[in-house]
């Protein structure tokens, strides 16, 4: 018997029209749909007049239901997995069933679609050349502070998810640890009351202290700006050359790069390299 297929099907993050024709076709053709919240998914399916069996698959039953899904897939079933909104596998248990499928040699096909993190990143206006997605930080303040300490010198744009009742606590910890950084906060993306705030952390605290935060939030943090003079503080030219050579560069290329990065004459850096 041939093994089945698991389809990763992204669903709209707000506006029901933000679903691809291919995803609708797959949802119509599969044998079963595994949903984070069957009631939520049923509204989407009813909107498009799709009638399919639904199975609840979420954080609290992922072990038992994951085994059930794998057994059905091993028997040849075609199954779609959906989350309440966006791409399954991003900050939800879809990640676990994907790992189980790969381990069991079951083919996984991911369909393109809406993802709140990327939408908020583009809306932020911050650099998209390099970015890092951190998802939800820990609930406990002690653990959250530890993570923010790790991220405070991150030069890439950082994307976080946060629940409305924890937003202010996150912002206050960010201000204490990261300073008054520029941030962008998006909520209710693609919905009627969609909003993106852009400003400093202190301005965000002021805004969201005056109203009750509602909706799921995507917090985008501008990368840390490291001053040129601080970048090489305490690192001699010789040590800088040694470091680059240790990373695989030739002495010639290391000299050239050190001269460029430190804005020094190349012959000056070359003289330092003669002692290495």
Quick summary of this structure?
The protein is of the alpha/beta class and 276 residues long. The chain contains 12 helices and 10 strands.
Characterise the protein shown here:
This protein has three domains: 106 residues, Tetrapyrrole methylase, N-terminal domain (Cobalt-precorrin-4 Transmethylase, domain 1), CATH 3.40.1010.10; 106 residues, Methyltransferase, Cobalt-precorrin-4 Transmethylase, Domain 2; 46 residues. The chain contains twelve helices and ten strands. The strands form two sheets. Strands 3-2-4-1-5 form a five-stranded parallel β-sheet, sandwiched between helices. Strands 6-7-10-8-9 form a five-stranded mixed β-sheet. A hairpin with a 7-residue loop joins strand 8 and strand 9. The chain is globular, with a radius of gyration of 24 Å. The model has no long low-confidence stretch (mean pLDDT 93).
Sequence-ordered SSE layout with sheet pairings:
Blueprint: E1 5-8, H1 21-29, E2 32-35, H2 38-47, E3 54-56, H3 62-74, E4 78-82, H4 94-104, E5 107-110, H5 116-124, E6 131-136, H6 141-151, E7 157-162, H7 167-178, E8 182-187, E9 195-200, H8 201-209, E10 217-221, H9 228-231, H10 237-246, H11 251-262, H12 266-273
Parallel strand pairs: 1-4, 1-5, 2-3, 2-4, 6-7
Antiparallel strand pairs: 7-10, 8-9, 8-10
The second-level CATH architecture of the largest domain is: 3-Layer(aba) Sandwich
Q: What do the pLDDT scores average to?
A: 93
Which residues sit in consecutive blocks of at least 5 with pLDDT less than 50? none
Shape: globular
CATH H-level homologous superfamily name of the largest domain = Tetrapyrrole methylase, N-terminal domain
Order of helices and strands: EHEHEHEHEHEHEHEEHEHHHH
Q: How many strand units?
A: 10
Number of structural domains: 3
């Amino acid at each position: 018997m041939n093994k089945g297929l698991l389809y990763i099907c992204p669903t709209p993050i707000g506006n029901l029209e933000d679903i691809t024709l291919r995803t609708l076709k797959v949802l119509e053709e599969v044998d079963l749909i595994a949903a984070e919240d069957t009631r939520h998914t049923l509204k989407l399916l009813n909107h498009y007049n799709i009638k399919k069996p639904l199975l609840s698959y979420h954080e609290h039953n992922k072990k038992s239901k994951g085994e059930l899904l794998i057994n059905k897939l091993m028997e040849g079933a075609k199954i779609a997995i959906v989350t309440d909104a966006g791409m399954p596998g991003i900050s939800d248990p879809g990640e676990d069933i994907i790992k189980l499928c790969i381990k069991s040699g079951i083919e996984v096909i991911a369909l393109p679609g809406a993802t709140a993190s990327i939408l908020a990143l583009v809306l932020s206006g911050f650099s998209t050349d390099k970015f890092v997605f951190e998802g939800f930080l820990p609930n406990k303040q002690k653990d959250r502070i530890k993570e923010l300490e790790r991220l405070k010198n991150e030069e890439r744009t950082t994307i976080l998810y946060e629940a409305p009742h924890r937003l202010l606590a996150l912002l206050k910890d960010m201000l204490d640890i990261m300073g008054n950084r520029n941030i962008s906060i998006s909520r209710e993306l693609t919905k009627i009351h969609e909003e993106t705030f852009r400003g400093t952390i202190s301005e965000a605290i002021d805004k969201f202290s005056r109203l009750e935060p509602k909706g799921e939030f995507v917090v985008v943090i501008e990368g840390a700006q490291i001053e040129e003079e601080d970048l090489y503080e305490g690192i001699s030219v010789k040590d800088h050359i040694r470091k680059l050579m240790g990373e695989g560069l030739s002495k010639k290329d290391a000299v050239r790069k050190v001269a460029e990065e430190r804005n020094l004459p190349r012959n000056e850096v070359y003289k330092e390299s003669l002692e290495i």
